[in-house]
Write a structure and sequence with these properties.
The chain is an alpha/beta fold. It binds manganese (II) ion (2 copies). The site of one manganese (II) ion has 6 residues, from α7.
């Protein structure tokens, strides 16, 4: 019998028996990357840099050139999706161990014709991305990140609001004195999508015949600082993200408050699980860092795209294995590494305690996702669950089983169903968060480390 079972399923803290020094160091390294990489592009760039430092070779999957010699590769898809591969001694036909996480996070995007002036303020029109509670994004400092082309056609990567000398941006909210009508609305309607326009300027230009002098002032600044003008936004991809740094929480510093734990906590821990193991492996190992999960995994950089097929075809070709990617998938196993909901002490009513996750109790194994009668669920098999639980027990990794909230209270999905659709045997497993999808989410250092150990065991597991 394992320790977890002796004390009751789901009830033991991952802090018990934890190597505190190692977990603390790992958490610090994670928070540094999380604070520096706040968009899918930035996280992919950071992952590629870390992988290359560890000897992984960057491969252009769109090129007809053969793969370079070696066993460790990183493939990048349009800057927003990365795939790290460590080839095993076994033929690819026998399958891979895959951990798939997503690197996009809820945020507020800038529209393509955004700049306007109202009431002495220059503003940008926005359109939110992913499932946000809109009222949480007003009155906080926001940073502007993303790609835009300047007036000479040069591609710029903006990152404004992260350094001490930088300005930040902010969305206003109505004062309580005049907020009675707002307060009487449903919370989901109190702050609307069109009320999320962001303030970006305030000083008018002095020219007397200028009809929109504050807007004109911002355009002057754009030209002066970046060689951009108001037309540049048409071909831009700009994202507003919280301008805050990751912080430790509590007198004991056991929790981490940060933007983007969902799902960079899995992206980082799975990537490190792959990179930290320097021994050659038997089965091929893969970490898939997907984009667009928060809006349904669509598009050419999401889990539904066929970039995975393209990468596997390249690998098969280089290994001179005459089998299809489909055959590789049907022999492969995957963890869909994504976050779960921790029981919230302020909202216990939303959870059925015996099947809910507790923050700090280790990696959460989720048999099925979906909503209502498991609609749109990925539903893993008993055999798959049994194999993972056995593996985690053998490796003394703390785990718990949970589903997302009470039956019929809500629901959600992950990339799991897009892996299993390909024939990959898939199970959801990741840490539980508090305040998921808020500008600042809470995660446990003990869970972060448990996930790292779990992903490491999984990547190295025989079939
Ligand atoms: Mn997620
Ligand atoms: Mn999410």
């Amino acid at each position: 019998m394992t320790r977890a079972r002796e004390t009751g399923l789901n009830k033991e803290s991952a802090w018990k028996g934890l190597d505190r020094k190692a977990a603390d160091l790992f958490a610090r390294e994670y928070m540094t990357v999380l604070g520096a990489a706040k968009t899918e592009r930035e996280f992919v760039d950071a992952s590629v840099a870390i992988a290359r430092e560890r000897g992984y070779k960057l491969v252009d999957a769109t090129s007809l050139k053969p793969l370079p010699r070696g066993t460790k590769f990183v493939f990048v898809n349009r800057g927003k999706n990365a795939v790290l591969v460590k080839l095993g001694k076994q033929p690819l036909f026998e399958g891979m161990n895959i951990v798939a996480a997503h690197v996009d996070a809820p945020r507020i995007d800038i529209k393509q014709n955004p700049l306007f002036e109202s009431t002495g303020l220059a503003m940008l029109q926005t359109h939110y991305y992913g499932g946000i509670k809109k009222y949480q994004w007003v009155t906080i400092p926001l940073a502007l990140h993303g790609v835009i082309y300047d007036r000479e056609g040069k591609k710029l990567e903006l990152r404004i609001g992260e350094s001490d000398g930088d300005p930040v941006f902010s969305i206003s909210d109505i004062l309580p004195h005049l907020g009675q009508a707002q307060a009487e609305k449903k919370m989901s309607e109190g702050v609307t999508g069109e009320a999320l326009d962001v303030i970006v300027g305030h000083i008018p230009v002095s020219s007397r015949d200028e009809k929109q002098p504050v807007r004109a002032g911002v355009v002057e600044e754009l030209v002066r600082q970046f060689n951009l003008d108001d037309r540049s936004f048409a071909a831009a991809e700009l994202e507003l993200v919280p301008a805050m740094r990751p912080r430790e929480v509590g007198f004991d510093k056991g929790l981490m408050l940060a933007y983007g734990h969902d799902d960079r906590i899995c992206g980082y821990s799975s990537m490190r699980a792959l990179l930290d193991d320097k021994e050659p492996c038997e089965r091929t190992q893969m970490v898939f860092l997907a984009d667009k999960e928060e809006i349904g995994s669509d598009g050419d950089t999401g889990m539904q795209s066929e970039f995975l097929e393209l990468v596997v075809e390249k690998l098969l070709d280089a290994a001179k294995e005459a089998v299809s990617a489909r055959q590789v998938f049907w022999n492969s196993t995957a963890l869909s590494a994504d976050v779960s909901a921790a029981m919230d002490p302020n909202y216990l009513d939303s959870f059925e305690a015996s099947n809910a996750a507790t923050i700090g109790n280790g990696i959460v194994i989720t048999k099925y996702t979906g909503s209502r009668g498991k609609s749109a669920a990925h539903d893993a098999s008993a055999e798959t669950l049994h194999r993972l639980i056995q593996l985690l027990d053998q490796n003394h990794v703390r785990w718990q089983v949970a589903e997302l909230g009470k039956v019929d209270v809500g629901g959600g999905g992950t990339v799991a169903k897009f892996l299993s659709k390909r024939g990959i045997e898939t199970l959801d497993a990741g840490p539980a968060l508090l305040s998921m999808h808020a500008p600042q989410e809470l995660a446990s250092k003990a869970d972060l480390y448990a996930c790292y150990l779990a992903y490491r065991s999984f990547l190295n597991a025989p079939r």
